[in-house]
Amino acid sequence: MIARVAVLGVGRGGDRVLDYVVPEDLAGLMAPGSVVRVPLREREARGVVLALAERPSPGVDPRHLRAVRRTDGAPVPAALLAMVPWLADTTLAPVGTAAGALLPPPRPRVPALLAWRGPASTRPSAAERALAALFAAGPRGRAELLAAGASPAALARLRRTGAIVDVPAQPVPAPAEPPAPGPRLAPDQAFAAAALVDAVARRQGAFLLEGPTGSGKTEVYLEAIAAALARGRGAIALVPEIALTPQTVARFRARFGDRVAVLHSALADRERGEAWHRLADGSARVAVGARSAVWAPVPDLGVIVVDEEPESSYRGDRQPRYDARAVALERGRREGAAVVFGSATPSLEALHAADTGALVRLRLDARYGSRPMPVVHVADLRVERARPAGPGGLLTSPLAQALAACVDAGEQAVLLLNRRGYHPVCLCRDCGHALRCSQCDVSLTVHADRGLLCHYCGRASRMPAVCPSCRGTRLAGMGAGTQRLVEEVGTLVPRARVLRLDRDAVRRRGEAERVLDGFARREADVLIGTQMVAKGHDLPGVTLVGIVLADQGLRYPDLRAAERTAQLLVQAAGRAGRGDRPGQVWLQTYDPDHPAVRAARSHAYEDFAGDELPRRRELGYPPFGALVTATVSAAREERAVQAAQALADAAATVAGARVLGPAPPPVPRLDGEHRRQVLVRVATPDEARAAGRHLAAVDVGRQVRVDLDLDPA
Fold first, then answer.
1. Exposure of 218 by Cβ count < 10 A (0-12 exposed, 13-18 middle, 19+ buried)?
2. Which of these, 24, 94, 475, 599, is most buried using a 10 Å CB contact count?
3. What whole-number distance in Å separates Cα of residue 201 and Cα of residue 184?
4. Which among 498, 458, 471, 460 is positioned nearest to 482, based on CA atoms?
């Protein structure tokens, strides 16, 4: 028997599906989906069996095949394995690479129990008779036997003779207790929850749940999940940021207890393995996590929740570049599960899907408990920059005064500056040269505690004494990041206790949770951070939100720049006034009349979407068209240029395609490799996949890497 195995670790360029012989002693254990250990070159690798066959693949000499060594834990569920061809097709990934995304973590080691199988001789010793008495009630753990007086030497001898044997401990299923009751729902929440509960019963339905920040979307999710559990079914709930997972898990566990398991990439292998297998064997029924949790092995899936649906983190940046939202819809269709996307600021793609009937729109009209939305003030930096409040000029006088009043009143504030570090650029004042990363075409960021840091490849270096261009000594940081904002707040409001939340401040595992917990417990007055502070957090003590540079994201060369800016501003503003006290927002901008800024000022994201969708339609951009991006990387620039031109020429032969490029991407050199991009615009996703396959067939040489991305985020 031959097993066709998708093997992890074959390397770049192969499809990672290899043939192996199945030994006779494993034949009865082998089936599609089996996770196995196989030899790979000079080492051992994990893989998943895609299929079994009587003969090797065409062109494979059976005399050269190596054998499967052993099985390795629970198999991939059949429902997930069946999605591998779909995943490979929709992401332009090799089949083996697609299968690797579903491979379960290694099964965690479970302490073995010892069971009695009989004395080692016909005349058992007193010690053996004593052990037999200990085993009278069933298997026992080694520590328990040692505590009862058994010696390690006696246990080792009895194991060698077969008198006692190992019995793996089995997981204990969570008790099927009814969920804890939730709060009384408002009428609009009850209507939305009823629609989802009905979809769970009918085993079909895809929804877009809209509502302003603080309107109680999470309680609607919980009602749908409770309905699934009541029918003996399971659920998956996705959140966009790992930093949001602890808060979500706390709410879910308060409702569903130990039936909740957490899955995300920041967990240790042991923890991920334990959670995966608890879900697979039914010990847990609700999976909560980030993007990869969409593959959770939940049997009889009843509902999938995708919270904060527009977040780009739901798309991966490595093959297979799947979109968790698309996977959720496909799993729901195949497994008869209701799917609900939720956000106060849905993506334009989701809004278009609701307009065309692909998603059923559910609307929450107001904040829970009729709490008012915060009042949004706009500070025009073209005017206010002339009279900054602090020595660094980051906060205008109105925002600084509002911050001081907030702290004096015993309330809390959140300040958003979507830029890490102390200074984003270091310039020579003599010649204007900006210090740049030696491996990436980006400016180095000045950090107060780490020197100069590249935010793309992670390389760190010390601040030089002289300019590498002119040997001048007048090097100075320009601009501001979160570290500098912390310093300015300390100068303006010295009595304020300040916490910082960005990727530099929470590098260690669990640090984000500790920062947010500390702020929620009122251990600080001001939380300063990047976009990590803007979405998903429910902080009742926050009455003031300050957005330091609201139009920063509008300058990025991306078709979704305005959309993402509007979403960030509306979401950040929504952190204020969620408790008993009203909130206010100060929004500092150089462009107060931009539609994204106006959307935040009036809490009218739907007005922004209504303006932006016609522009997308006119240009043929998603959701009214489809894109394929080919990114070429090579150590030598001329190779990247030549390969990109070859891809552009090939794309030009695709019927109905419009080709843009080749052109340098926003970061032309990354981690030592030169890059060029080709953008292909077509009418439909099917045409995009066809164009992608056409480009994948172009021979660009072995020293060039081509990354293809459908509808890049």
1. buried
2. 599
3. 22
4. 498
CA distance 485 to 394: 7
Residues in the chain: 713
* Domains recognised in the chain with CATH numbers: 2-100 (3.40.1440.60), 187-369 (3.40.50.300), 372-422+480-614 (3.40.50.300), 626-710 (3.30.70.600)
Task: Give the separation between CA 424 and CA 434, rounded to whole angstroms.
Answer: 10
Encoded amino acid at 454, one letter: C
**pLDDT above 60 (res 171):** no
- Other beta carbons within 10 angstroms of residue 395's beta carbon come to 26
Per-residue tokens: 685: 């996703």
Counting residues of the chain whose pLDDT is more than 90, the rounded percentage is 52
The pLDDT of residue 702: 84
Q: Which residue, among 431, 511, 512, 426, has the nearest Cα to 462 in the 3D structure?
A: 426
Over the stretch 79-130, which tens digit does the pLDDT of each residue have?
Answer: 999 999 999 999 988 888 888 888 887 766 655 667 777 765 567 677 677 7
Interatomic CA distance for residues 669 and 675, integer angstroms: 6
Give the gyration radius of the chain's Cα atoms: 29
CB 590 within 8 Å of CB 548:
no
- 509 by Cβ neighbours in 10 Å (0-12 / 13-18 / 19+) ranks as exposed
Residue 689 β-bridge partners: none
User: Sign of dihedral through CA atoms 434, 440, 441, 443?
Assistant: negative
Residue 144, SS3 per DSSP: helix
Q: β-strand 112-116 against 140-141: which pairing, if any?
A: antiparallel
Q: What is the DSSP letter of 617?
A: H
Label residue 413 left, alpha or beta by phi (over 0 means left) and psi (-120 to 50 means alpha): beta
* Tokens linked to 413: 């504030």
Residue 186 is classified by DSSP as P
Give me the pLDDT at residue 512, please: 80
- Residue 488, amino acid: E
Q: Looking at 200-214, 239-253, 478-492, which range is the least confident one? A: 239-253
Q: What is the pLDDT of residues 244-269, one digit of tens each?
A: 677 788 888 889 988 999 888 777 77
Which pTM value belongs to this model? 0.85
CA distances (Å), origin 644, targets 637, 638, 653, 663: 11, 10, 15, 8
pLDDT tens digit string along 403-458?
A: 999 999 999 999 999 999 999 999 999 999 999 999 999 999 999 888 999 999 98
Q: Tokens at residue 315, please?
A: 């798309």
Task: Return the percent helix, strand and coil in the chain, to nearest 5.
Answer: 35, 25, 40
Q: What are the structure tokens assigned to 450, written together?
A: 């780490």
451 within 8 A of 463, measured Cβ to Cβ: yes
Residue 531's region, left for phi above 0, alpha for psi from -120 to 50, else beta, is alpha
Instruction: Measure the CA–CA gap between 497 and 444, rounded to whole angstroms.
Output: 30
Strand partners of residue 713: none
Round to whole Å and give the CA distance between 323 and 313. 9
Q: Is the peptide bond before 320 cis (omega within 30 degrees of 0)?
A: yes
d(CA 106, CA 35): 9
pLDDT, tens only, 534-551: 877 778 899 999 999 998
